[in-house]
Write a structure and sequence with these properties.
This protein is α/β, with parallel strands linked by helices. Helix content is about 45%, strand content about 15%. The chain has helices at about 20-30, 40-55, 70-75, 90-95, 120-125, 130-140, 145-155, 160-170, 185-195, 195-210, 225-235, 240-250, 270-275; strands at about 10-15, 30-35, 60, 80-85, 210-220, 260-265, 280-285. It has a seven-stranded mixed beta sheet with strand order 3-2-1-4-5-7-6, sandwiched between helices.
């Protein structure tokens, strides 16, 4: 909230809505909120909130955050944009959504379960080299070749338990205090199923059109691949970076783009209260005027 500075007269985009925690906090501070999400369960919760506060203060669109340009056509520019990446706790906790290896369910992993390719389609039909590349790039698995080979040998894989078992057999298995060996595999598949890397890139590229000058961007990431992409984007578009590059080449560049607003990670107390916050990182930037006199 401090990074986004919500207030009466300001419009903030909440992407994605999830179960509405951020939207409610923004509304409590007087902001008008435009939320989006592709999950039909999120849409149902959003409709309840719209009934509570009215459509003049809260509006919802069934869109992915990669479709911010499309949202811009419907709602116009905003003063704040929150990108809360990854999946929500209700999605993880529902076995039938297939996001978690902690309980057996269908290998689905679609944030919008009404359309698209499932995780089962990926693990059962991709070639071994294709699986290896997916695991390496999407989840940074430490031994993607071995895991991909184990998945191919274990086909057909129909449930999250099937996949977790195949990965565990290919590795040393769960060790006390360590992450489950299937964590990165599930992450890579979820990102591929939902095209998360592509959607993040599209969302960041939309920032200059979405945010008014002085508008604030806040991004919550939950693993290093996402955080690195956000960090690089902010650095490449920051006024400090452009000035340094301009001076290096003998042509000071007066163009302003974004001002970095720093970063934050959860405290030990917060992690103790909410263990799922342990990998979260918040980064922010302020949209500046394109040119400065």
């Amino acid at each position: 909230m401090e990074m986004l500075q919500p207030a009466p007269g300001r419009t903030v985009i909440d992407a994605t809505f999830g179960r509405g925690g951020h939207s409610r906090a923004l509304l409590e501070r007087g902001a008008r909120v435009v939320a989006l999400d592709v999950d039909p369960d999120a849409e149902a919760e959003a409709q309840k909130l719209a009934t509570e506060v009215g459509s003049d203060r809260f509006r919802f669109h069934r869109l992915n955050f990669g479709q911010l340009a499309q949202l811009m056509e419907k709602e116009g520019p905003a003063d704040g944009l929150l990108l809360d990446l990854g999946i929500s706790s209700p999605q993880v906790d529902r076995a039938e959504r297939g996001f978690s290896f902690q309980q057996s369910g269908p290998l689905d992993m679609r944030m919008d379960p009404t359309t698209g390719t499932t995780a089962a389609d990926f693990v059962n039909h991709l070639s071994e080299p294709e699986l290896r590349n997916l695991l390496r790039d999407g989840g940074e698995d430490r031994d993607p070749g071995k895991i991909a080979r184990a998945i191919v040998r274990a086909r057909p894989l129909l449930t999250t338990a099937d996949l977790a078992t195949a990965v565990t057999r290919a590795t040393r298995g769960p060790r006390p205090g360590a992450k489950h060996p299937a964590t990165r595999t599930f992450l890579a598949l979820r990102r591929a199923v939902n095209r998360e890397g592509e959607n993040l890139a599209q969302a960041l590229n939309s920032v200059p059109q979405i945010l008014r000058p002085g508008g604030r961007l806040a991004v919550l990431t939950y693993h290093s691949t996402e955080d690195r992409a956000v960090k690089i984007w902010i650095r490449e578009h920051s006024e400090e970076e452009k000035r340094e590059l301009g001076m290096a080449f003998g042509h000071p560049n007066p163009e302003l783009w974004v001002k970095p607003l720093g970063e934050a990670v959860p405290t030990d107390e917060e992690i103790a209260t909410n263990p799922r916050a342990r990998s979260a990182r918040l980064r922010g930037a302020e949209r500046r005027n394109e040119r400065s006199a």
